Amino acid sequence: MKPAEIENVNPVWRRRYTVNQAAQGSPVIASAWEYENGFREVWHAHEEAQMVYVTRGVLRVLTPAGMWTLPPYHGIWLPPAVPHELHAIGAVVVRSAWVAPGANATVAQWTQCRVLKIGQLLDALVTALAGHIEADDQRSTLAMSLLLLDLSQAPTLTSGTLPLPQDRRLRAICEELLSYPQNNDTIEVWSERVGASVRTLARLFREETGLSFGQWRQQLRLVEAMAKLALDVPVSTIASELGYQSASAFISMFRKTLGDTPQRYLRRLEAS
């Protein structure tokens, strides 16, 4: 089922047939699994919220509103009923927790997707619950309570986020750039191509993505670079494929945005 089709499902049917309900009376259900490179978990949604992250490899998460490219221990919070798709970049180890509605007052207010920094304690609790999920067990009950508390206090991040606009003209631009991130056409060129003024395009990019056109394209290239690094693509090749005139220009952008060089970033991925 396509994301638009999932969104349009009558809520009566969603209440009647809760086939994706994971928690079944427990406030938290945790799980861990592995995916091979290129694995795709197709569009679906859950009745509960879901927090998902990887401890190895890179995970790409798609929703109708955006794309998130997550390195190890960067997780995403998916509110209930949000359609999403998961892509494995490299061999990944995935960990996830489904949180029942009303389980925690703080996270119940998280109605938008958000990127979270997964600390050691939160990871340990998810791992423990993934191996021992009996809801009536005292240790599990205490672990769930602590997990919800730690989750509610997890730092939020912005890295790896690529919002998608709704305006059809902006969508046309973004779809082209997603296919060809090396495209260096200016906003003036795109203005003529999609039939909207430069001022209109600039305003819409800000309103619908929170980024300028240039910032959006740079963010796209950054998340593509993160994926390619996870697949051990050489930095010089990445720079060329993403439209940079030199590897040094790409490295400068990467370090300025993520605070690390691609080589160091890759070593962190490999050490995770």
Textual characterization of the structure:
- The chain is globular, with a radius of gyration of 20 Å.
- Strands 1, 2, 3, 4, 5, 6, 7, 8 and 9 form a 9-stranded antiparallel beta sheet that branches.
- By secondary structure, it is an alpha+beta fold.
- The longest helix has 18 residues, at 213-230.
- It has helices spanning 3-7, 11-16, 105-108, 120-131, 138-152, 168-179, 187-194, 198-209, 213-230, 235-241, 247-258, 262-271, and strands at 28-35, 40-44, 49-63, 66-70, 74-78, 84-99, 114-117, 156-157, 161-163.
- The chain folds into 2 domains: 3-157, Regulatory protein AraC (Jelly Rolls, Sandwich); 165-271, Orthogonal Bundle (Arc Repressor Mutant, subunit A).
Binned, the helix content reads: 40-55%
Sheet having the most strands: 9 strands, antiparallel
Average pLDDT: 88
What structural class do you assign from the helix and strand content?
Answer: alpha+beta
Low-confidence stretches: 9-21
Just give the CATH class of the largest domain: Mainly Beta
The tally of strands reads 9
Mind telling me the C-alpha Rg? 20 Å
Number of domains: 2
Chain-wise SSE layout:
Blueprint: H1 3-7, H2 11-16, E1 28-35, E2 40-44, E3 49-63, E4 66-70, E5 74-78, E6 84-99, H3 105-108, E7 114-117, H4 120-131, H5 138-152, E8 156-157, E9 161-163, H6 168-179, H7 187-194, H8 198-209, H9 213-230, H10 235-241, H11 247-258, H12 262-271
Antiparallel strand pairs: 1-6, 2-6, 3-4, 3-5, 3-6, 4-9, 5-7, 7-8
Helix pairs in contact: 4-5, 10-11
In brief:
With 272 residues, the protein is α+β, with helices and mostly antiparallel strands.
